[in-house]
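Consider this one:
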Amino acid sequence: MAEDCKKIHNHDLVVDEVRDHLPEDTDLFDLAEFYKVFGDSTRIKILYVLFESEMCVGGIAQLLNMTMSAISHQLRVLKGARLVKQRREGKTVFYSLSDDHVRTIIEMGMEHISE
């Protein structure tokens, strides 16, 4: 099949041009790892909570009816991916979205699945 295509079309120029525009393998790996973070519905719920308000672990746990331990674990993952940031006020740590890109990524995904 590929041989038949090669007889009809010379893809060398297109292949070379596309190859020149591909990101480095390490960048593609990092991008794939980044998107894996969105593969957990609990993390998506936490991000939606943080769309609305900065919150502490206890507030998020109460809202999502989960343990503080489970929420803390997911927040560590989100923080590691630089999707959330934290702010300390006394002994309480408040979490919020890192920047507007996070909201945009989620909104674009939701728009895509809604089409």
About this structure: The CA atoms of residues 24 and 36 lie 19 Å apart. The chain has a mean pLDDT of 92. DSSP finds seven helices and three strands in the chain.
